[in-house]
Here is the input.
Amino acid sequence: MRKFTLIVAALSSFASIVFAQTDTINASNHKLVMSRVKTQTASYLVYLMDSATQKPGYTDLWVRSLRTTTRDNKPVVAFKWQWYRHDSIAREVTGVADAATFAPIFESTYFPSRGILAYDFKNGYMMKSDTVAGNKVPDGKITKLDLPIFNWEMDMETFGLLPIKKAGQKFVIAFFDPNGPKPAYYTYEITGEETIALNGEAGVKCWTMRIQYEPEAYAIFWITKQSHEMIKLKEYFKGKYRFKVKLY
Here is the structure.
């Protein structure tokens, strides 16, 4: 009887640990640590590398910024992402998110080949914004958002708001790319801790986080423990690595 009791207790303890490690994160359950949001600008070197030959591919520069402001007399977070390639702008994104939930309110994306695509997010729908001149989104286009989503264009900033406490945690996050197919939940796991060397004398303590997109595609993120920033990404897909590294 005592052996049976110990087995049951051990299984119960294991189950409680497993379930405690999984958090659903969306724009309605207030689990992001919004007190970390601050005015900031960060630049990232983004480049490809062939996994077999180590031959480098394209190299881009990303400049991403957040700032707190107001919109319609309500506190919001303004986002800007400038993507440069060959000394030219390859994409420019501006967005607005609710300051309390990080839920998207507005986004405008400029593509050199497609023009401006701008959307408003209202009452569980994404629709063409009527406040942006030259908006190329078709009239009447409306996308139903079945989940309380975050804007995937702002994923790097969202990761810094996760309530990370220990290795083994899993976050199931509701993301949506405004120019993608549909909202979905994606599972990210905190896999451990690592110190990233900045130079010969300094290092930054980080959490490592992983997502498995497909059996042969994954990404690993390094998120600083103190400043809660994503400072590095290593992604693998179709025989290539993609790196994003914050510039200091």
Observations:
- Residues 2-20 have pLDDT under 50 and may be disordered.
